[in-house]
Amino acid sequence: MANEAVDRKIPTPQPRPALSLVGAPRVLSLDNYECFIGPSTHIAELKEFISIQASQRQPALLIGERGLRQEQIARVLHQASEHWAQPFFAVNAHSLTDEALHNLLFGPRGVLETCRIGTIYINELTRLPLLLQQRFAAYLEEQRWRARSGKSSSQRLVFATEWNPAAITAENRLAYGLVELLRPHSFVLKSLRDRSEDIPYLTNHLAERIARALNKGTHEITPGAMKVLMEYAWEKNIDELEAVLESAISCTPPQRIDETLLPIRIRHATLKSIPTTGVDLPQLVDDYEWALIETALRQTGGNQTKASVLLGLRVQTLNMKLKRFAEQNRVLNIAR
Length: 336
Fold this sequence. Notes:
Blueprint: E1 19-20, E2 27-28, H1 41-54, E3 60-63, H2 70-80, E4 88-91, H3 98-106, H4 111-114, E5 118-122, H5 130-148, E6 155-161, H6 173-182, E7 186-188, H7 199-214, E8 220-221, H8 223-231, H9 237-250, E9 256-257, H10 264-267, H11 281-299, H12 304-311, H13 315-327
Parallel strand pairs: 3-6, 3-7, 4-5, 5-6, 8-9
Antiparallel strand pairs: 1-2
C-alpha cells in the first residue's frame, strides 16, 4: 500500500507546557489552542513570536494557507498582551461586500475608530479591494509616524494572508507594499503536511475535544490510522483534520479508530512523493484493489453479492478477482 512507503515511528504525545510571556505578569496556558500543539520547532518559533509581539503594539502579519487557525493565533496574541481585557474584533472579509467592509473598517463608527484600545484581526489582507488596501497603507504609515513621534497607539492590528511575500509580483504593487510594510513583524505559518510530527499530538487533542463535545466517550486512534493521518497531505490543514475526526467519532460508539473508519481518499492517497528508488505501480494497484475488496467484504459480512454492489462489479468479476488473490496466498481478514 502507498501508506507503507514511509515507515515512521509514531511518537507518544507528552503534556504541553504553558507559555510564559515575555515581560508580562500573566502565564497563558496553551492547552486549548490547536495552533500551538505539537513538538516541532515551528511551534516553538510561533510561541516565541507571540511572546515577543505581546510586549509590543506593532501591527502583525500571519502568512499561511487557510485552516491554520490564524484567528485563534490572533486571539492568543491579544490574550497575551497587557490589554487582554480590552475588546477583540475579528473582521471576516469573505462575507462582506466592498462597501460594507469599508464602512465596517473606516466608517465614522467603524472598528478602527471605535476600538482605540484592543485588537482588530483582519483576514485576506492582500485580497482586499484596492481602495481598502490604499486606506490601510495610509493608515499604517500614519501609525508608524505616530509611534516615532512618541504617540504610540494602544490599538493592535493583526492581518492574515495566504500569499507568500516571495510570490507577490509587481503586478500587485500595492499588496506587495503592504506586505513589505508588515514584514518586520510577520510570521510564516507552516502547513500541516510540512510538520507531520505535530499530527499525533494534534489528532489526540482534537479527538478528545470532539468526543467530549459529542458526549461520545473515549476514542483511541490506532497506530495504523495515525500513520495514515501523518502521511496525508492536508490541503485544508487543521480544519480538514478536525472534520475527518468529527465524522469518524460522530458515527461510532467509543472505540478504537482504525484505518477503515477514515475516508477512502485519505486511506489511499498518502503517498506525498515518489521515492528516489521508485515504486512498483502494478503491486500498488493490486494492494489498493485488495484493500477495497477486503473492506467491502468486511462491511457486508462476507456477502459477495452485496460486496460486488458496493464495488460496482459483477459478482462473477469479484469472484475471479478473489480467485486470483487466493493464488497469491492472500488471506482475507473480514472479521468485524
